[in-house]
Each structure stands twice: as structure tokens, then as C-alpha cells.
């Protein structure tokens, strides 16, 4: 007995479908074979009835009334094997019969009535005298256009019905054999589906308990194989995400401890007093610098949290992209100067470039990209910001550096949250993840191209703003709506 579940459902569905199909086929087959046999018998008797009627029309009027033995001669001429031939009067009285035992009563079946009315009659029923199933075919015998007598052929259907029963039982046996084979096949099919599902379910239950080191073994076909691969991939990604999270916690703990240690140390030192103004100014400067660093780390995590929860609000306006990039270069100029890095803006558009977006957030995007380029570039190298237009009404900004580059192994992961190629480089590993989401909020795309030891190119695509005369009213409405939300 198959226990409840998908396996039983599959077997039951197969069984029901095949059973109903075979049942309908059996009924149609039984009816068809019965009709075929019965029609064959009917056609045979009908043909002989026609011959008898034709013979009577040609020769009957010469002898039927004057020669009592005429009907006997007709019986001998048109008699059929295993069939009783009868000549009846219009009232159904038996005038002659090939059966030695003639009926005492008049024949009143429907076939005789039809023949008396001038048509061919057919009747299937039980013979009153014997109780057996018979078929009777009656036809009028016409003389000079007048219906004088009725010729009636009667044959037993018992042997035919017996043969039909044998064929029916045989066909039922075949159907039962087919049904048994289909049931066995469906059980095998159900097991081939249920066993992998049970295996996948067992492994999934272990994964639900936190055991992400186990994997679904075996090669499964079609959707089951895809499901197994998806679960294995999910477990692999969870392990990787947990590892990245652990690395992030370790890294952020170090990033937070370092400035806090400096702030605490200088605070205690300055509390003691006795320092000259220069030393005091140095200590306060370090405290201020480390405080800014802490604020930057916290703001980065807050921005990421807002983006994850879809709570980041953008103040949309028309932004001059070239001016924004120039401001970005000025903001990082001092940091680049310390490493002797030259930053250059290359304009390939030769026209104003305006986009619709939040200027502060777009500036955050390019500040993060340029800051990363400076961080991972060699001393006395260069960084180029290239602005160009694309055919699909979009602008492309490329941040190109000649730094250390990124290996192919890490290139697809650098935009993942918490991921850091170099954990000693500082930071939270959220910068590129935040950058990507901000670009996507502006309906743009970001892509990275890099070669280890050669450099990195970050490509940012943004949609251009419509001409101002077409969008002035829309911008005003958008600004008013955002102001009311705030």
C-alpha cells in the first residue's frame, strides 16, 4: 500500500485516467461488435427475404391459391441453416413453417405488423415457446400490388450472444492486464519522483536547522535537478554570505576600535593638562579627524540600511553632470595630491550634460568611485573621468585608473555587500553595494572592467534629462511633492 503523498496521487491519477479510458473503450467495443454481428445476421436474412418476395411476385400468383404444396416448395427453396422460415397470413397465422412444430397461436410481434403495413420488419426478443433470444425479419409477399402473405425468417441469437460474451470477457481481461501494467508503471514513476523529493526534503530540513555544509547528492532529471542545484547554490551562497558577514563584523570592529582608541587616548591625555598649545591643537585635531571617520562609517551603514528597506528618499532636480564631476575632483584633490595622483576630466560631448537626479546622492556615487580609485592606485599614477554620450539618449561616465586592478575571481563579487578584496584596506565593504543601488535608483547601470596589475574602469550610465521647456512643470510638481513628503 502506498502511503499518502505525491506518490499515491500520481498512481491514483494514472489509474483513474486509464480506467475511465479503458471503460469507455470497452463499452464502445462491446456495442460495436454486437451491432456488427447483429447487422450481419439481419442483412443475411433480409437478402433471403428479398429473394423470397421477388420469387413470389413472379410465380406465386400462378400457384399459391390452387396448390397447397406451393408454400412447402418455397420453404425448401429458400430455407437457411439454423433459421426457421415461416409463411404467415395477414393476421399472423402460420400457413407453413420449416419447423416441424408449428405454433398454434398467431404471431403478433412488431416485425409482422410492419410487414403487414408494407415495410420490412425487424424484431429482437425472446421466443415465447423456448425462451431463447431470437431475431425475426419479416417482409410482405405482394401479388398484383396487394399484400397477400408475410414471409418471416427467425434465427436464434444464443450462439451469437455466447460468442459476444466470450469476446467481451476477453476484452475485459485485456483491459485489466493493461490497467495492472499501467498501475505498476505509475508506481515506478511515482517512486522515481518521490524518492528524489524525499531526499531533497531531508537535506532541506537539515539546511533549515543551520547545517549549510551538507549538499544534495545525485543527478536528477529536469525540474528536480534544477531544484537540487538551486538548493545547493542557496546553501553555498548562505555560507559565503555568513563568511562575508563575519569578515565584516571583524573588519568593522577593527575600524571602530581604532578611532575610538585614539579619541579615548587623547581625551585622557588632554584631561591631565600641562601641554603647550601646539600639542593641544594636535590632540584636538586627531580627535576631530577620528570623529569624522566614525561618522563616515556610521553614515555608510545607515545609508545601506535605508537602501535595503527602500527608505532612501531622493530629491530630484536637474543636475549638471560635468559640474558635479568637477566638484568631486576638488573634494578628493588633496587626498590624490598626497599620493602624487593626477585626476583629469575628459569631455567628449562638447555640450552641456544634464541628468534628472539627486545631486548629493550622485556626488556620493562618484566620490566613492574616485576615492576607491585613489585608494587602490599606485603613487604618481593617474585617474581619468571620461564623459561621453550614447545613442539611446544616455550619458556614460567612465572612471579609469591605472591601479592594482581586480582579479577575475573577485570581479563579480566586489559589488556584493560586505565583500572586501583586501580586509586590511579598511572600510565596511558596503561602498560599491551602496553605489550600485544609488545608480539603479536613478534608472542607471553600473559595470566594472578590470585586469589585475593593469587597472580598473568603472562605467556608469545615466539617462539624460528631457529639454527644460518640456519638463519644467513636471520638475516643479515633483519638487513640491517631495517637499510635502518631507
UniProtKB/TrEMBL annotation:
GO molecular function: ATP binding; histidine phosphotransfer kinase activity; phosphorelay sensor kinase activity
Acidic residues biased stretches: 466-486
Principal EC category: transferase
Keywords, comma-separated and alphabetical: ATP-binding, Cell membrane, Kinase, Membrane, Nucleotide-binding, Phosphoprotein, Transferase, Transmembrane, Transmembrane helix, Two-component regulatory system
EC number of this enzyme: 2.7.13.3
Positions of transmembrane segments: 12-37, 167-190
Domain HAMP, residue spans: 191-243
One GO CC annotation: membrane raft
Cross-referenced InterPro entries: HAMP_dom, HATPase_C_sf, HATPase_dom, His_kinase_dom, HisK_dim/P_dom, HisK_dim/P_sf, Sig_transdc_His_kin-like_C
Catalytic reactions of this protein: ATP + protein L-histidine = ADP + protein N-phospho-L-histidine
Localisation: Cell membrane; Membrane raft
Chain residue ranges for the region called Disordered: 464-486
Lipid bilayer topology: Multi-pass membrane protein
Domain Histidine kinase: 251-466
Protein name per the record: histidine kinase
Organism this protein belongs to: Paenibacillus antibioticophila
Upper taxonomic lineage: Bacteria, Bacillati, Bacillota, Bacilli, Bacillales
Amino acid at each position: 500500500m502506498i502511503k499518502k503523498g505525491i506518490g499515491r496521487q500520481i498512481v491514483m491519477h494514472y489509474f483513474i485516467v486509464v480506467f475511465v479510458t479503458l471503460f469507455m473503450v470497452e463499452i464502445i467495443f462491446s456495442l460495436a461488435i454486437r451491432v456488427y454481428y447483429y447487422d450481419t445476421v439481419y442483412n443475411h436474412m433480409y437478402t433471403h427475404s428479398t429473394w423470397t418476395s421477388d420469387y413470389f411476385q413472379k410465380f406465386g400468383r400462378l400457384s399459391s391459391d390452387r396448390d397447397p404444396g406451393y408454400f412447402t416448395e418455397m420453404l425448401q427453396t429458400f430455407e437457411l441453416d439454423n433459421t426457421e422460415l415461416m409463411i404467415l397470413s395477414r393476421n399472423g397465422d402460420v400457413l407453413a413453417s420449416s419447423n416441424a412444430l408449428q405454433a398454434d397461436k398467431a404471431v403478433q410481434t412488431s416485425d409482422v405488423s410492419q410487414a403487414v403495413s408494407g415495410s420490412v420488419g425487424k424484431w429482437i426478443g425472446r421466443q415465447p415457446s423456448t425462451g431463447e433470444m431470437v431475431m425475426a425479419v419479416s417482409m410482405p409477399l405482394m401479388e398484383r400490388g396487394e399484400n397477400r402473405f408475410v414471409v418471416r425468417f427467425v434465427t436464434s441469437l444464443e450462439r451469437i450472444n455466447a460468442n459476444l460474451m466470450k469476446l467481451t470477457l476477453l476484452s475485459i481481461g485485456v483491459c485489466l492486464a493493461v490497467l495492472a501494467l499501467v498501475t505498476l508503471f505509475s508506481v515506478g514513476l511515482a517512486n522515481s519522483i518521490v524518492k528524489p523529493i524525499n531526499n531533497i526534503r531531508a537535506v532541506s530540513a537539515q539546511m533549515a536547522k543551520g547545517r549549510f555544509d551538507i549538499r544534495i547528492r545525485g543527478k536528477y532529471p529536469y525540474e528536480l535537478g534544477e531544484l537540487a542545484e538551486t538548493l545547493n547554490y542557496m546553501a553555498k551562497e548562505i555560507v559565503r554570505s555568513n563568511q562575508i558577514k563575519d569578515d565584516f563584523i571583524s573588519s568593522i570592529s577593527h575600524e571602530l576600535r581604532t578611532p575610538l582608541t585614539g579619541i579615548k587616548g587623547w581625551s585622557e591625555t588632554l584631561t591631565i593638562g600641562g601641554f603647550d598649545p601646539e600639542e593641544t591643537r594636535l590632540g584636538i585635531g586627531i580627535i576631530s579627524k577620528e570623529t569624522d571617520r566614525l561618522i563616515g562609517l556610521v553614515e555608510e551603514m545607515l545609508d545601506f540600511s535605508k537602501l535595503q528597506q527602500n527608505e532612501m528618499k531622493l530629491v530630484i532636480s536637474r543636475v549638471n553632470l560635468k559640474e558635479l564631476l568637477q566638484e568631486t575632483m576638488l573634494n578628493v584633490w588633496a587626498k590624490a595630491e598626497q599620493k602624487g595622483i593626477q585626476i583629469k576630466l575628459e569631455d567628449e560631448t562638447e555640450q552641456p550634460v544634464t541628468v534628472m537626479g539627486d545631486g548629493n546622492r550622485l556626488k556620493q556615487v562618484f566620490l566613492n568611485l574616485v576615492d576607491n580609485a585613489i585608494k587602490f592606485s599606485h603613487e604618481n599614477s593617474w585617474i581619468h573621468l571620461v564623459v561621453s554620450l550614447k545613442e539611446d539618449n544616455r550619458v556614460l561616465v567612465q572612471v579609469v585608473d591605472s591601479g592594482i586592478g581586480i582579479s577575475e575571481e573577485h570581479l563579480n563579487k566586489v559589488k556584493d555587500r560586505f565583500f572586501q578584496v583586501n580586509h586590511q584596506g579598511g572600510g565596511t565593504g558596503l561602498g560599491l553595494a551602496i553605489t550600485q543601488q544609488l545608480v539603479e535608483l536613478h534608472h542607471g547601470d553600473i559595470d566594472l572592467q578590470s585586469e589585475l596589475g593593469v587597472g580598473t574602469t568603472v562605467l556608469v550610465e545615466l539617462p539624460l534629462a528631457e529639454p527644460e521647456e518640456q519638463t519644467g512643470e513636471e520638475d516643479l510638481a515633483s519638487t513640491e511633492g517631495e517637499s510635502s513628503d518631507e
